[in-house]
Design a protein that fits this description.
353 residues, alpha+beta, five-stranded mixed sheet, 14 helices, globular
Amino acid sequence: MKTTLLASSIAVAVLSLPTIAADLKYTPGEDARFNWQSYEALKSQDLKGQTITIFGPWLTQDKELVESVIAYFEAATGATVNYSGSDSFEQQIAIDVQAGSAPNIAIFPQPGLAADLASKGFLTPLEPKTATWINDNYAAGSSWVDLGTFAGKDGKDALYGFFYKVDLKSLVWYVPENFEDAGYEVPETMEELKALTEQIVKDGETPWCVGLGSGGATGWPATDWVEDMMLRTQSPADYDKWVTNELKFNDAKVVNAIEEFGWFVRNDAFVDGGARAVAATDFRDSPKGLFTSPVKCYMHRQASFIPSFFPEGTQLGADVDFFYFPAYESKPLGKPVLGAGTMWSITKDSPAA
């Protein structure tokens, strides 16, 4: 079982991160932001003639980002790497592994799905030294190891996943110029955010752009909203119980979080296109209303990856900015933050994988 190259390839990728990978082109030695030491180390692996297949959830711009990193791995090792993405990744990977047609590497946006496949024997454990590398090179490395460690078919825990791209989700994007022109201030509490939402409507404008469409994965942006609301209305202990299903989805605490999300989207005046447009709007298209003239919406809650889908040439911090999706001032729960990460796992082992 040879599993070290997965870690080696992502070691290069991780240290290039999406904000850097956005403009990385394969130009050896010319970009000081890239970890050239890792790149040079990869050259010791001769994989000429070998092919690695990778399947994940990324399309369009995100696909271009990961392929820009893969190009470095191909150049260093001589391997051929074929990446394919799908909006229906979660459904398709489950079908592929059971049919015996899995890719060498799968990129999971949900650790829960990876844990389920590991428990059924469909994932290959990574070598123990991979955990050591994560501990040595990641801040709070042990936490990332824990998140990628699952029980296998034999019931024993092992590291199955390596986190590559991590995003912050508790963000609200806005155009500072639009706020300034309208006289709006960035809200610092959930109470202020709700008041701002209502004020924008009173001013005859639309506060939010929301899109839940994502092909076979349609609806996942709504789960992010609900998770953020759970963190802001219930204790961390209750959130953890919810994750393990000890706290059921029909529990009053969960229903309340869903209702809190509903407050923002069920009112036609609150969202661009009205409430019915929310599910029909693709999440990649939903932020576009921030940049139109006249303005279609003033705020868009989405993760740190969404700038990939902003209009070309948009300058972060100038043309668009973000603020923290705030906590309730009336609830003593601190200021929680929701995050997410895509995890690479071996679904069909090979020397190159």
